[in-house]
Structure formats: structure tokens, C-alpha cells
Amino acid sequence: MQAKEIKTGTVVVHNGDPLLMLAVQVQSPSARGAATLYKFRGRNLVTRQKVDLTLKGTDSLDMADFHKREVQVMYRDSEQIHLMDTENYNQYAMDLEDVGEQLLYLAEGLEGIRALIYNDACVGLDLPSSIEMNITQCDPAVKGNSATSRNKPATLETGLVVQVPEYIKEGERIKVDSRTGDFLSRA
């Protein structure tokens, strides 16, 4: 796959390991005849290290041989989260530190989670873009503050704190963008 075809979320092989592309920046040439450069920020899915790459548009990398499998969360202990494949019931375990910030979006009963399987091991999670969660703690709206669109913090069932509009109440179910952590709408 050529560098100009690589998008955010693509998994390629770099130095023998799978690399998940997190950000892509295109740098146009400043001189006539110069090549367009593509700067990539990625995460090595085996070592969990961040990697910066700069390639010309005609340089190429191989696609990683991995599978995306639909999984559901079975349980979480003090060190790992345990997942089960919904088709063949294989079980996978991931360290909590490897899951990172995605842990705040893993609500009980969440559907649409896909595991990235590389060499029969779960190396990452692909969450749905919007996730529905319940608000467990939220301050009440202050009367008279409705002239402008103001936001207030709301704590969700997983501990995630999101800024929501003033009209949202405790106990409501909302949709949250799993990529940015922003409030989308009521569920």
C-alpha cells in the first residue's frame, strides 16, 4: 500500500510489527519537482510504543495480516480485561494499561466492540464511534441560565466525565463520541 493511500485507522507492517496509524499529516512540496511528504503518527500494537514516520507518496508499506473480531466484555479484574469472541467463543485477555483511555468507554452490555487479533492475540480494540451510557452524577440546572447554551460536567457509569448541556438531568441516557469524548445527543 502506497503512503498516499494510508488513512487514519489503517494497520500496516513497519519493521516487522503491526503499526496502527493514529494521525496523518500531508506536507506539500515547497520547491518545483519535490515530492509530497506524508507524516504519520502510529502506535506499535505489539510493544505499545508511539512511532513517527515520514514517507514520500510513492513509498509503500505492507498491510498487516490481522483480523477484526466482534467481541463482548466478560469481566474485568485488577490487572486485565477479559473478552469473548461472539462467533466462536474464543477468550482473550488484555492488560488494563494496554486498553488505556478506551476503558472509560467500555460500559456494561456495550455492543459493536471489535478486537484486533494478530498472531492469535488481542492487540487492540476498535470501539463504535458513538456509545450510549447512563449519567450517574450531574448537577441540576440553574434557573435563569438558559439564555445562553452553557455546559456542565456529568459523570457517566464508567467514571468518564463529559460536558453536557444544562437541560440534561441525572439518570438520563446519552450518546458520547468514543473518539473525542464529546456529548452527541440524548439516547
From TrEMBL:
One Pfam family linked to the record: EFP_N
UniProt keyword Nuclease, yes or no: no
Gene3D superfamilies assigned: 2.30.30.30, Nucleic acid-binding proteins
Boundaries of every Translation elongation factor P/YeiP central domain copy: 68-123
Keywords in alphabetical order: Elongation factor, Protein biosynthesis
A GO term, aspect molecular function: translation elongation factor activity
Domain Elongation factor P C-terminal: 131-186
InterPro entries for the chain: Elong-fact-P_C (IPR015365), NA-bd_OB-fold (IPR012340), Rib_uL2_dom2 (IPR014722), Transl_elong_fac_P/YeiP (IPR020599), Transl_elong_KOW-like (IPR013185), Transl_elong_P/YeiP_cen (IPR001059), Transl_elong_P/YeiP_CS (IPR013852), Translation_prot_SH3-like_sf (IPR008991)
GO biological process terms, semicolon-separated: peptide biosynthetic process
Single GO cellular component term: cytosol
Family note: Belongs to the elongation factor P family.
PANTHER family referenced in this protein's UniProt entry, alphabetically: ELONGATION FACTOR P, TRANSLATION ELONGATION FACTOR KOW-LIKE DOMAIN-CONTAINING PROTEIN
Full protein name: Elongation factor P-like protein
Organism: Rosistilla carotiformis
Protein's gene: yeiP
